[in-house]
Amino acid sequence: MDLSAVRFDEKGLVPVVVQDARTGEVLTLAYANREALEETLRTRRSTFFSRSRQALWRKGETSGHTQEVVEVLLDCDGDAVVYRVLPQGPACHTGERTCFHRALLEGEKDLGFVVGQVYATIKERLRTLPEGSYVARMHQAGLDRILKKIGEEAGEVILAAKNQNPEELRHEAADLLFHLLLTLAELGLTPEDLAKTLWERHRPRSPYDGSHGN
């Protein structure tokens, strides 16, 4: 646990950017002193230093919305840190998923980002099972019902493609992907597991190099 490369400021603090390890989304900007960093590395739970209370605080100690730290990164100058985390609930005290939820300039979201966000929402719905939630309702109906829905959506994708209807295909493919993500979540898999398998198959001499045509 060598923190000699960390350049703390004159108050003994270093800024910490908290990032969702699954989606890459920035969740919070906070501060840590040496003790908070040591506690984070030791417990693998996001720990910070409150400048207003002049005390350590661990994310989720009152709300229950903890953050499992999977990686801690130090920037090139040593004066900023990134916690890459697996959040259990919203990061913001307002209940928003991220503290950075007010857009000054709205940008396009890529597929990986959107898939990560949708998967995170599904996991949260499965954890809390809120009333009126489609995910909660499907979960309570059981895995067989979810798998039946995948079959239905796959059929809709085929029909849309056969009809050469790009707009319909776009919507039906999104529905199919959503229910695939729900199935992954139900069985304890993540989009990262899927990405790893796809990447392994994408390499030279993979099954995709031959009859699959990739």
From TrEMBL:
<comment type="pathway">
    <text>Amino-acid biosynthesis; L-histidine biosynthesis; L-histidine from 5-phospho-alpha-D-ribose 1-diphosphate: step 2/9.</text>
</comment>
<keyword id="KW-0368">Histidine biosynthesis</keyword>
<comment type="similarity">
    <text>In the C-terminal section; belongs to the PRA-PH family.</text>
</comment>
<protein>
    <recommendedName>
        <fullName>Histidine biosynthesis bifunctional protein HisIE</fullName>
        <ecNumber>3.5.4.19</ecNumber>
        <ecNumber>3.6.1.31</ecNumber>
    </recommendedName>
</protein>
<dbReference type="GO" id="GO:0004636">
    <property type="term" value="F:phosphoribosyl-ATP diphosphatase activity"/>
</dbReference>
<dbReference type="InterPro" id="IPR002496">
    <property type="entry name" value="PRib_AMP_CycHydrolase_dom"/>
</dbReference>
<dbReference type="InterPro" id="IPR023019">
    <property type="entry name" value="His_synth_HisIE"/>
</dbReference>
<dbReference type="GO" id="GO:0005737">
    <property type="term" value="C:cytoplasm"/>
</dbReference>
<dbReference type="InterPro" id="IPR021130">
    <property type="entry name" value="PRib-ATP_PPHydrolase-like"/>
</dbReference>
<dbReference type="GO" id="GO:0005524">
    <property type="term" value="F:ATP binding"/>
</dbReference>
<keyword id="KW-0378">Hydrolase</keyword>
<dbReference type="InterPro" id="IPR008179">
    <property type="entry name" value="HisE"/>
</dbReference>
<keyword id="KW-0028">Amino-acid biosynthesis</keyword>
<feature type="region of interest" description="Phosphoribosyl-AMP cyclohydrolase">
    <location>
        <begin position="1"/>
        <end position="114"/>
    </location>
</feature>
<dbReference type="InterPro" id="IPR026660">
    <property type="entry name" value="PRA-CH"/>
</dbReference>
<feature type="region of interest" description="Phosphoribosyl-ATP pyrophosphohydrolase">
    <location>
        <begin position="115"/>
        <end position="214"/>
    </location>
</feature>
<keyword id="KW-0511">Multifunctional enzyme</keyword>
<comment type="similarity">
    <text>In the N-terminal section; belongs to the PRA-CH family.</text>
</comment>
<dbReference type="GO" id="GO:0004635">
    <property type="term" value="F:phosphoribosyl-AMP cyclohydrolase activity"/>
</dbReference>
<dbReference type="InterPro" id="IPR038019">
    <property type="entry name" value="PRib_AMP_CycHydrolase_sf"/>
</dbReference>
<dbReference type="Pfam" id="PF01502">
    <property type="entry name" value="PRA-CH"/>
</dbReference>
<keyword id="KW-0067">ATP-binding</keyword>
<keyword id="KW-0547">Nucleotide-binding</keyword>
<feature type="domain" description="Phosphoribosyl-AMP cyclohydrolase">
    <location>
        <begin position="29"/>
        <end position="101"/>
    </location>
</feature>
<dbReference type="Pfam" id="PF01503">
    <property type="entry name" value="PRA-PH"/>
</dbReference>
<comment type="pathway">
    <text>Amino-acid biosynthesis; L-histidine biosynthesis; L-histidine from 5-phospho-alpha-D-ribose 1-diphosphate: step 3/9.</text>
</comment>
<dbReference type="GO" id="GO:0000105">
    <property type="term" value="P:L-histidine biosynthetic process"/>
</dbReference>
<keyword id="KW-0963">Cytoplasm</keyword>
